[in-house]
Structures are given as structure tokens and as C-alpha cells.
Predict the structure.
Amino acid sequence: MSRLPCIKRKCWLVVCSRRRGALIDARNQAAAAWSMQKQRRQTLHTTAGSSNHDGPLHAMYYDLVQQRNVQADPHQLIALKELERLRTNLDQVTPLSQQQAPSTQSNSSSFSFLSNWLSSAKETVHDTLLSTMQPSVKGVYLHGGVGCGKTFLMNLFYDSITDGPWAASKQKVHFHAFMLNVHRHMHLARHKSESSSSSSSDAIIPTVVNQILSQGHLICFDEFQVTDVADAMILQRLFNGIWKAGGVVVTTSNRPPQDLYLNGLQRDLFLPFIALLQRKCQVVDMWKSDTDYRLMQLKVDGNNSVFFVGADGKKQFDALFYKLVGATAVAPTFLQTQGRHVHIPQAALTKSIARFSFEDLCQKALGAADYLIIGEHFHTVFVDMIPQMSMNELNWVRRFITFVDSMYECHVKLILQAKTEQATLFQRARSDTDHDEVFAFDRTLSRLEEMSSQKYLATQQRGNEKHFTEKQERLRTFTEITVRPVEDADYDSERFKVIK
């Protein structure tokens, strides 16, 4: 019995020795990972400082210039250089989801209880090593006026990632669609954690980040814009989580970063996100480009009348509607999404054509999800009696912007009749230029011009016919259709949402 304390003491010394050895191994491997990260950062820094104008993106761009009548633009070339830099940087790293941390297992397994004792420490070290092995890759933030080619360049960059690990870890999404999905994920996460004590936003954000990055670590956003206080308050935590997890962001916007959420509620709480965005993305200013290439294409194509003005225009509008529907029966119907009925005043189901008044669409509490389901089930939409609006009808303006953007993203042929010409649909004073809706409406006018071009009208009609039969049958039988689950707030008339 006298030897028992001595045996216990020897066992305890063996356990402590093995634990100390495992921690030393982990520390050495963490140091090696840090050294690897430092070397990669130096490589990225050297690459970012180069002024090489050769590369896949430039080759694709000049091929379009020579063969597809795309006009070379010096401001686009500056942005292209930054995107080429990013593309080269991505070749130096691997998406975090595809990396494996060095093993921290001990060579000896004499004591099974020792392995169990150290397992939690190994998991912690594994996560730490993964986070330190990923060098920081600076994304790109393109901002400029409407039609200057921001989205064109981002799409060119996205399409150029065709092989390697990033080709399997990329996603492209309209920013408003992205935020709508973020709120959906948060809503679902809250429901799952109702019975636990971890239902706060701080606990939910990591789950949402993981769901986002499961679709791809390279994220390309179109039309980055913040007008909603609910979005503004979560962006810093959300994007900080994305960047910490190795995400890389490329985005377009009509606003420079410092003007995002300008004059918004509690904007002082939003300012740290702006600083974070400027650190994580190289900001490229394209405002000096005064060419709207959407308008140029329209002039080349000629005038395709899909916008009618006044009483005489109303007659032509009606005539075009009945010409397109022909002898097909036209009747009211509805769609269902999330228990809500979306009323369709006039629908020619076999032709996939719908008709609304402006009051039906923009003077009622409809949201992006409602517009999306319309765009998914009709390839041609008529809207008449559009009034001239001012800052006094700001909610109407917001809904109209959302509607047009949703139709554009769904490649819908849009035919409109209004009281006045497009350029004067939204009356605003010089003092109103700080409002986000002013910038957004300018983009809407540019998109309406593009949507009236021969190329857009022909392309979208062929594309929608592929999916017409099955959508027509679902619409005919009034089957309940599930569009992304969203919170009630997403249908609030005050929310300014656009989804893809």
C-alpha cells in the first residue's frame, strides 16, 4: 500500500509530459503555418504592386472589342487591371474550405484516456491553424455611374474563373437578393435556437456565415446598396465573419463606400463597416466615365417601342396587348407564396403574359418576393397608368425601382404606359440628390433603356420559353409555390428590397 502514492505520482508525471509534448507540437506547427502565411502575403503584395496589363481578363476583353463590337474604355481598363490583380492573387491561395490543417496527433497512444483528455485541445488547435493559414486577399469594390460597365467587368471576371479550386467555390448574386437570403437564414436560425439560450444575433451570425460560404468563398455582388436600417445594423458582423472565414468579395455599386447608407437612421453605427469595407476591398472609381453603354446599344439597335406615353400611347399599349394575347382567354388569377396571395388582374396563361396597373403593383404593400414570383411565371408583363412621381410618393418610387430590378433579373419583357416620358417620371429637386432613391432611379431608367433594346427583347424571349411549359401548368392549377421563406418584415412597404 505504501507504493500506491508513488505509482500515482509517476502516472501523473507521464500524463503531464505527454500533454506538454502535444502542446509543443501544436505550437511548432502554428509557427510553421504563420511562416507560410507570411511568405504568401509577401507574394500577394508583390503581385498587387505590379502593373502587368497581360492576362486572361485582358485577352477576353480585347477579344470582345475586336469581335463583338465592345468599345474599349480607358476607365474600364483601370478597373480591369485591379480585377486581373485579384485573379492572380487567387491563384496563389486555396479557398479555406478546401484546406487541411497539419495533423496535431501524438505519435504515441499508450494511454487511451490521454487521447480523450487532449481531443478538445486538438480540435481548438485545428481551427486555429486553419484560420492562420489563409492569407488575406483584397477584393475589389467598383463604383461609378449607370451604364459605365461595372457589371460587365465583374461578369467578365467571374466567367474567367473556370478552373482551379476557386472555380468550384464562387457565387454571383444581386446584393438585395443576398440580403433577403441573409434575413431568411437568420429567421430559420432563430426558430431552431428558440429553446436554447443562444438566440442572439451574435450567436446566429456564424451559422449564417457558414451557410453563405457553403455556396462559395468568392462572392460577386451586383448593385451593393444599403437603404434599410435592419441591413445596416448587421453588415459589419456579417462581413467581418465572411472575411475572417476566408471569403473574398467583388462588388459593384452606384455609391462610393463613404456614401453608403447616407442620411440613414443610426448611421454612426454603420460607419465601422465602411472602414472595414475599405480595408478589405480595393476601391476603384469609375465616375470619370461619362458614357452609358446601355444607351449606346439602344441607339445602334434602333427604337423598339415598349414604352408608351399619354392617351394616344394608351391606345397603342392596349392594341399591342391584345395583339400579343390574340384569341387566348384573359382572366384574373393569383399566385401563392408564403401564405400570401399575389393577385394577377389579367393573365393570358397559355401565352405567359400578365397585365397590371401601376396601382396594383406599386401603390399596395408588395415586396421583392411578390415581384419575383410574377417574374418567374410570366415572360411578358404589361403595366399601365404610371403617374409622374415626386419625393412625396417615395414609397411608390421604391416599389417601382424594386419591381423593375426584379423584372430585369428575371429577364422579363416589360411593356409600360405612363403619363410622361421616362426621364421625367420621378421629379426631384437639387436638394434631394443625397437620397439613395435618386441614384437608384437613375439606374432604373438606364435598365429600362436596356430592356427596350432589340438584343434584350430577343434574348429573354428565347430564354423564357425553355421553362414556360412547367411554369404554365403550375400556374394553371394554382399550386402553392414556395419562394424563399422570409420574415414578415420583408413585405413591409417601407423596405427597399430587390431579389434575383
